[in-house]
Amino acid sequence: MLTKHLVLLSFACVVIAALLASFVNPSLVKLAYHKRILDNPNARKLQKRPVPVIGGMSVFVAATGAILLANFVVGTNTLFIPVVCLIAMFFVGIIDDMVGISYVVKFAFQVVLVFLLWYFGFRIDTLGGILGIHRLGLAPSLVLSLLAGVGLINAMNLIDGVDGLASGLGVYSGLICGIIFLLHYDAVYAVLSMSFVGALLPFFVHNVFSKKYKMFIGDSGSLVLGMLAYLFTCRIIHLPYLYLIDDYSISMMLAIYAVPVYDTLRVMTFRILHGHSPFLPDKTHLHHVFISMKYPHVLVTCIILTISVIIFLIWFGLTWLELSITWTTVISVTISAMIVWLIYIVIDRQRFFGTRQYARQVALARYRTKRISRFYYRMQCLVDRKHYPAPWKDEKKTNALSD
């Protein structure tokens, strides 16, 4: 049974972080416009006007505030090294958002920070019985930790392409990991995960529904979310054995982060095959095919989050079959990768050949956009506390969610 105090502490972290973020967000938006810390539209980006790119600061400040307050209840001294690395990654993202830095420099910082975490014990040094392998030596552990850490950081960074997607995945993964920590009575990491969940919720609302306080999470947020994914993975695979699903911790983490991981693997593989750098941006991510079908950002986010939940439920169902750890992992990874890859490939081929099925999907997307435009308009007015002209009354704005 979960202790009542641990549940209340986790809930308090969510509330405190959410309140701090709600208080900080308006001031940060004004600061971003004043200092011109904006993400300007171009041929690759999807927005039509400059948007503050300071949301990562809001999330980080609010989450850190909640963690510091929780420290008076439960000691969070064991988070010193992770928090130092998170702060360093946060500043790398802030610099990139403000003045821009080379992807080579970002990659080098990621390698150094993941190596420091590995050195201080935050490492992937077990396969949990996959292929009969349990403990790994120092060299294999270092290689696997660098691949997993840098891979997760870049996966969360590259998935940030439409409103609410990176923050939505952060809330989804943080909730699942937070529940796992609660079930294992891990108060420190429950505080860490729930604090970021609470900080992400107000940002998600402002990012998706607000016009007045709209901002992007930027690299300062997405890079931190990627490092959190690595920290949660390292912690979960070392939790004490209490439940049946603890046997499948590796495959569980692959299921939680399936969409960003497998989508990034596909994108980078295709870039390399076409002779391009795997780190240079383009429009070949999963969310881009839905945007090409005229789906609004909020629906794209909902679709991809639904895909993530379905993949996790498939993994959870496989654990009930009580197959071997190896077979459960192989089947789960295969199904997850096929879902993510086939959705992109099928839609992209329909778009390339201009099939009737694709035309029907575009028409359906426009119909759904009109259906939710009234809900979106009311949410926008509610969040901004301001009345805007109704978009469906303007013949030139048939899509209220296009920008």
Shape: globular
Beginning-to-end CA distance, first to last residue: 47 Å
Main structural class: mainly alpha
Helix content: 55-70%
Low-confidence stretches: 395-402
Quickly count the domains: 1
Mean pLDDT metric: 87
Percent of residues in beta strands: under 5%
Radius of gyration: 21 Å
The helix tally amounts to 14
Briefly, what is this?
It is built from 14 helices and 2 strands. The protein has helices at 4-35, 55-70, 80-98, 103-119, 138-158, 165-183, 187-209, 218-236, 249-256, 258-273, 286-292, 297-320, 325-353, 356-384, and strands spanning 38-39, 51-52.
Write the layout of secondary structure elements.
Elements: H1 4-35, E1 38-39, E2 51-52, H2 55-70, H3 80-98, H4 103-119, H5 138-158, H6 165-183, H7 187-209, H8 218-236, H9 249-256, H10 258-273, H11 286-292, H12 297-320, H13 325-353, H14 356-384
Antiparallel strand pairs: 1-2
